[in-house]
Every structure is written in C-alpha cells, then in structure tokens.
C-alpha cells in the first residue's frame, strides 16, 4: 500500500527519507501553505454548520458529519477541485485503514508466506491498492494536463498539494535534490489522507464528547469563543490564537485520547539496556502514547478531563516533553501536525460558536458512553448523537449545504 515504503511514514532512514521530510517542512506543511487553505476550511465548515442547522432540535450524528467535513477539507487541499472520485477514494482509504489495523497471523510468522494467503489479507490489500492506484494515477495526470495548459497561458488555479509534489518531477530544475516518481507522489498523498483524515475527525469527536459530559467546560469554552468573535459575527482563523482555553481542550483531548495510541513502530539500531532490560539490535519498539498520557506519575488526576492543566503550561506538541507525545517525537514526529491541529481547532470553534448542544432526551451528561473501539484509530464505540440548538446563525446566505456529497466535479 505504501509503494514499497516510499511514503513518509515507513520510508527507511537515508537520503530519500531526509528529502521527503524536507519537502514536508519547507513545502507541504509550512504555516504559509496551511494558512492558504483557510478559504477551503471556511467553506467546508460553513457547509457543516448549515447541515447541522437543518437538523436543529433533533438528534444529529455529529461523528459522521465531522468525518465527511474533514475529508472534504483534505481532499480539496490535496487535489483542488479536480477530483471526481472523492467518495470512492475516501471509501477505499477507510477500508484500507480498517484492513491494515486488523489482526494478521502472518505478522507473527513473517517467514511463512502461505499464512498471508490463507488469511485472505494479501489479495484484499492488492485489490485495494489497484483501485486506489487507478484513482491517484488519474488525478496526477489531470494535474499534469492543467499544469501544461497553465504554461500555455490557458488559466491558472490555486496550487494544491499534488501541484507542489509535481514540482519535483521538473527535469529542468538543476537545484533539485530529489526526483519524485508518480508512485512516490501517490504514496505521500495516501499518507496525508491516512494520517490526517480520521485522526482529526476522531479528535474533534472526542473533544465534543468530553465537554458535553462536563457543562462547566462547555460553558467556559463557549464563552471564550463567543467573546473573541462577538464583534466579527463569525469565526475567523486570524483570531484563533486568542482561544487559549479551546487550545487547552484540544491538548487535553489528545492526552486522554490520542487517535493513534500506539505510535508507529521503531527499530532498535543497536543493542542497549533500559531499566535493566536487554534490548537486542533490530528489535521492534512500539510506544504506547495512550498509557503515557494517563500515567499518574506525570499527571495529577490522570483520568480526569481537565483542560486547565494546560493553561500557563509549557508542555507542547513538539515531542520534547516525553510525557506528552500524541504526534510522536524525534526525527519521526508527525510532519503534518500543524495542518491537522488547525483543522481540529477551527472546526471545534465553529461548533461552539454557532450552537448550544444537548444530549438526546432521557440522557444525562454522565451517562454518555466513552467506551473506546480500536481500529485504525481509537474512536468512540458509538457514534456521537447530539441535539444542536442554533445560537449564532450564519451571516448572509453562507455556502451551499453539500457536506457528504461529491463536490469535485470536472
């Protein structure tokens, strides 16, 4: 699925991996690039608000709507308005993540390749790979055609992530350190969807579940958001840094509910000893970020959702505070965390600014089930149904309400 490990997550250390990290940090996920997608986020979240508003007063499946909205944002950031196969593509991504997160007996005995066939997993993965590859090949070819027309003076669209990656196929650039093949680009795009789609939607979902269980936190968060944007009459990204309590809510959510509780496996480069345990070279090391975030040795009332613990606290996402590593740490820390966090924080601000929220009739706050279900991410076992009550209606006509529909027609 990762095109022989030429993606960002699984590429081995070396020149190619270093160049991929460089592309991520100086091209794909710079603050300037992430900010350039502001209009996309605003339009898609406006669509989400309109969708929710149309269901006001009745239970609404927020889990499903958030997943659709986040994928819409990522699709448009990655592909622009050129992708006509979004729904099929997202469906295949979700299926691939589900298959990849399942138990496979062949992993326990990698030398016995017949076990891979016996489980039926390999044929399923190959089918998914072929279908995804076909869609991505078409998207890349469409971008190349559009790029060629732009050079001829027949129009120019906003640069999306595929356009950025295609720059590294320019044979005429003598300063180019790396050349990306079509398969390399496909692998990177799949990483962006796998790492940034369901993880972001799941985090927003957990945040809403936690604050609906604690009216004190809900009231405080809504008061902050509505105070910051009261003169503007709408949520604007330029003022997001003023939402210190909302940012603390996101941090606390990621502490208790890191979307990928087991970080990507590492490999021990040399024999070492840790706390008396002998670790042989080449050992696979899996870090449990979920357990670290709930360790009472580092966190007071570790199982309590208490955003205030991050107010006036220097702990951040940069991986230097090892008691808090929702995005990993070291050289393999998630390169797209800036992009993911903006999507999470802005979406949460929209939900808290425009709506009051109630549980369905007969449910008490403390009755909301927080049982976890482990798949590609750790999500709530049950979808989150809440009753929205419009507090701040959208100004003007807003955008068309098309969340969950294919918005990428030629």
Characteristics:
single chain; 410 residues; mainly alpha; Cytochrome p450; 3-stranded antiparallel sheet; two-stranded antiparallel ribbon; disordered C terminus
Describe the structure.
Keywords: Heme, Iron, Membrane, Metal-binding, Monooxygenase, Oxidoreductase, Transmembrane, Transmembrane helix. Its main location: membrane. It contains 14 helices and nine strands. It is mostly helical and 410 residues long. Helix 3 runs parallel beside helix 14, helix 4 packs antiparallel against helix 10 and helix 10 runs parallel beside helix 14. It has a single domain, classed as Cytochrome P450 (Cytochrome p450), CATH 1.10.630. Strand 3 and strand 4 form a beta hairpin. Strands 1-9-6 form a three-stranded antiparallel β-sheet. Strands 2-5 form a two-stranded antiparallel sheet. The C terminus is likely disordered.
Q: Outline of this structure?
A:
With about 400 residues, the chain is mainly α.
Order of strands, main sheet, comes to 1-9-6
- Radius of gyration (CA) equals 22 Å
**Alpha-carbon distance between the termini?**
27 Å
**What sequence of helices (H) and strands (E) makes up the elements?**
HHHEHHHHHHHHHEEEEHHEEEE
Mean pLDDT: 87
Beta content:
5-15%
Identify the CATH class.
Mainly Alpha
Low-confidence stretches: 397-410
Number of helices: 14
Derived structural class: mainly alpha
**CATH-defined topology:** Cytochrome p450
**Number of E-state strands:** 9
- Count of the separate structural domains: 1
The second-level CATH architecture is: Orthogonal Bundle
Principal-axes shape call: globular
> Considering the protein shown, what is the CATH homologous superfamily?
Cytochrome P450
Q: Biggest β-sheet, characterized?
A: 3 strands, antiparallel
Helix content: 40-55%
InterPro entries: CYP450_71D, Cyt_P450, Cyt_P450_CS, Cyt_P450_E_grp-I, Cyt_P450_sf
Family: Belongs to the cytochrome P450 family.
Pfam families: p450
Keywords: Heme, Iron, Membrane, Metal-binding, Monooxygenase, Oxidoreductase, Transmembrane, Transmembrane helix
